[in-house]
Design goal:
single chain
Length: 294
């Protein structure tokens, strides 16, 4: 269910039993380069998290694989004890290797270990929301998620997880997961230039399930970037602002989790996402996605 919010663009959405701001914050960029190691400016990273909550953001996205084990500890130091209104979403299904890769880790024992590591690093007894990450570092991959998702359902029944989501998945995997247990959100790559999930976004909206896009400016061709910059220039806004505003206006079930390690950039993203796009602006922006289709 979507409701309005006076302070943040996009209002709010109900994730399971929690009401969250549609404008959230993704913590991945708080780790070091290539999402490995600690941040260069640790105090700055803590400041960004506190500013996010201070602005009224109630949805923070993280994973113990970020760093690894860096962003969760920063979240704990900056925000614990957590405000009752704050929902922290984490992700399991991948680890990190010494080269900074993201090898899959979806065996039942891997997932149980990751859930317990997230509980410890965030210093909580129950994880608000756990997304099962499927596919690989490049894209979703076809295949059953049943064993992995059922493992998380078991941990949910043990009282360690409140809500379940899925990430980097195909439409078929969404259907499979929903046939096993309730899913409150789907987290995939989706933006102006990459609209393969258009139908999925609409189907989930009808069923009251959130869609959480990542990489709002990822994978644009030079021509697509030029088209976005042209609209942004006309509106006196940044391309990121226009991309975020388009996502918020695309469907009420879309929740944003843009990341940044800069407090100033965080404020800019919040202000930019509130940009009012006219029907003509939206039509021109929609053409960007159409150019990506064969």
């Amino acid at each position: 269910m979507h409701t309005s919010s006076p302070s943040l663009p996009g209002g709010t959405w109900t994730l399971g039993d929690a009401t969250v701001t549609r404008f959230g914050y993704g913590a991945m960029q708080l780790a070091g380069p290539w999402v490995m190691g600690p941040p260069a400016d640790r105090d700055g990273a803590l400041g960004v998290l506190r500013e996010a909550v201070g602005l009224g953001i109630t949805h923070v996205d993280t994973s113990d694989a970020y760093g690894p084990r860096i962003t969760n500890r920063l979240i704990r130091e900056a925000l614990h004890p957590y405000p009752e209104s704050l929902l922290i979403a984490t992700k399991v299904g991948a680890n990190r290797d010494a080269e900074g890769g993201w090898p899959t880790a979806r065996r039942p024992e891997d997932l149980r270990q990751q859930v317990h590591e997230n509980l410890e690093s965030l210093s909580v007894e129950v994880l608000d929301l756990v997304n099962l990450r499927m596919g690989d570092a490049q894209s979703p991959r076809a295949g059953s998620l049943a064993e992995a998702f059922e493992t998380l359902v078991g941990l949910q029944r043990e009282g360690l997880i409140r809500h379940l989501g899925i990430s980097n998945v195909t439409a078929e995997q969404v259907d499979e997961a929903r046939g096993i247990a309730p899913v409150v959100c789907v987290q995939n790559m989706y933006n102006l230039a990459h609209r393969n999930d258009d139908d999925l976004v609409d189907e989930l909206a009808v069923d009251g399930i959130a869609y959480v896009p990542f990489f709002p400016l990822g994978g644009f061709t030079p021509l697509q970037s030029e088209a976005l910059s042209r609209v942004a220039g006309r509106l006196g806004a940044t391309p990121m602002s226009v991309a975020l505003a388009w996502l918020l206006q695309r469907s009420p079930n879309i929740l944003l989790i843009p990341g940044t390690s800069s407090t100033a950039h965080l404020r800019e993203n919040v202000a930019g996402a509130g940009l009012a796009l006219s029907d003509e602006d939206v039509a021109e922006l929609n053409d960007i996605g159409r150019r990506a289709k064969p």
